[in-house]
Amino acid sequence: MSDTAVALTALVVAALALAVAAWAVAQAAQVRGRLRHVESQRPVGAGDLAALRSDIAQALRHVAVVRYDAFGDMGGRLSFSAAVVDDRGDGLVFSSIHARGESRTYAKGVVGGGSDATLTPEEQQALAAARTGHQKA
Question: Global pTM?
Fold first, then answer.
């Protein structure tokens, strides 16, 4: 191999090494940028956690249904009362009374586990079951 060929090969290898080094520097800069972004993200603090707990407490997430026969001559437990409340006992109770010729539906608001309207025994049972999580409340 001549001196010119060796010098040319060395020049090509040096150019490739320079290109690889430039690529590595660019990649490192990109990783540093992503790292700065991740580090700048604020972790969930106590205030955020309290707000999240408050939002969850207000969710209507406690549900219970009581099925029953509203009339002695009817079978199949087609009538029902259902309660849907949040952690504080705020929500609603609704009932559907099924008779032979018709069906009626009623809704009653609930605040703090109680209602301004008189609750039937089945509605009271549904509300107690939703608040305690036990169907036989």
Answer: 0.61
